[in-house]
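Changelog-linked ticket: 2'-deoxycytidine-5'-monophosphate example.
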Amino acid sequence: MKPIQIAIDGPAGAGKSTIAKKLSELLNYIYIDTGAMYRAITYMVLQEGINTGDIDGIVKLSERIEIRFENDSIYANGRNLDHEVRGIEVTQSVSHIAQIPQVRSILVKIQREIAANHNVVMDGRDIGTNVLQDATLKIFLTASVEERALRRFQEMIGKVENVDLEAVKADISKRDKMDKERAHSPLVKAKDAVEIDTTNYSIDDVINKIIFLLKEKISITN
Ligand code: DC
């Protein structure tokens, strides 16, 4: 039987990872945070001192990195990078790395391999449009830029010094623009995706809505 695949796409801060993770726990599916994979490559690029403009160097390095997930943790060449991939420098550089088509095809291959054999909830930017074009259910999560910036800001308080809401908002807007306007697999809603605006909804409201939509597609027994 074909595994069940739930694709969740949308801009930064729309709630994708929180919702995808919780949903995967409820359904007992594997959660794949594809953003963490782009972030892991970015972290390794920065660690090796490779310039973000050195495409050849980045592609060569990407070919040498073995990326895998274990219990929702991300590993690159056997090293756990859960903490490292959330660093500010990584966040600021990842959109550049995610534009490189060769890096994308390396990671998309891994993503498809996992989804071929397991029920998955996979979140990212191009899951419904490219990675899992035949996904069982495609969701496109959005929220206003103000709400998304506020959520990121609240996450950062206590972890990062001198956080500034306006700066967070500017950073999110910049990343949105790069993700939407890039040549390869830009952030766009798949034609058959259901759009959910999370601005005024709780996490549980959104999860219930997704489970309702999933039940329309398949019969869940538990
Ligand atoms: O969701 P995130 O903030 O962790 O994503 C990090 C970056 O990676 C973001 O700039 C978009 C990019 N990305 C992508 O291009 N394709 C994906 N499937 C996931 C993330």
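Closing comment: Example verified and attached. The chain has a mean pLDDT of 94. Residues 29 and 157 are 31 Å apart (CA to CA).
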